[in-house]
Design a protein that fits this description.
Rna Polymerase Sigma Factor, Chain: A, single chain
Length: about 190
């Protein structure tokens, strides 16, 4: 019998399709926060991110196709999520929504509650980071989020976004440079969020 921690995502998916509901629970636990953060970072709307997140998992469950062996499960999952978000934008005729506060407690963060000063500081830092992310061009933000939240390699990002590898590298480099510049200058970040 395989130990759950050693099972690959592909093996867990096969076990789930074979009737092992616990295998799905492990897959979900491994990828839920990263996927949700990626979707939220792309759309900036917690309600939309949650809706697309649920649609992504439902699509995975309903899909009878197996992932291609050359593609990691995580890449496949994020591709499904990305496609669902793009579909939603096409249907609604808009690209991005308003940014609301995201409540990570809703999704199982087990960190102890910070004190009021720490909460204020974390909230300000989160607002600065979100404002800086929103200031990035969409293509740069997407590459950054796939690298930061999905922990995908650049080649995987290139495949997922159907973008040449050198373009992915450039987008990530420009995104990092701009984020460093924006986050190093608190006045600029405050200006963005105003």
């Amino acid at each position: 019998m395989n130990t759950p921690l050693l099972d690959t995502d592909a093996a867990l998916l096969r076990r789930y399709r074979g009737g092992d509901a616990g295998a799905f629970a492990l897959l979900y636990e491994r990828h839920r926060l990263g996927l949700l953060r990626f979707l939220l970072g792309l759309c900036g709307d917690p309600a939309l991110a949650e809706e697309v997140f649920q649609e992504t998992w439902l699509s995975l469950i309903r899909s009878q196709s197996e992932q291609r062996e050359a593609v990691l499960f995580k890449t496949w999952l994020y591709q499904i999520g990305r496609n669902r978000l793009i579909d939603h934008w096409r249907k609604s005729g808009r690209r991005q929504g308003q940014q609301d506060e995201y409540d990570e407690q809703q999704h199982g963060a087990a960190d102890p509650a910070p004190g009021p000063e720490q909460q204020l500081s974390l909230s300000r830092d989160q607002q600065r980071l979100q404002a800086a992310l929103e200031d990035l061009p969409v293509e740069q933000r997407e590459v950054f989020l796939l690298r930061a939240h999905a922990d995908l390699e650049l080649q995987e990002i290139a495949e997922l976004t159907a973008t040449p590898m050198e373009t992915v590298k450039s987008r990530l480099r420009y995104a990092l440079q701009k984020l460093r510049r924006l986050l190093a200058d608190p006045a600029k970040a405050e200006e963005l969020s105003a």
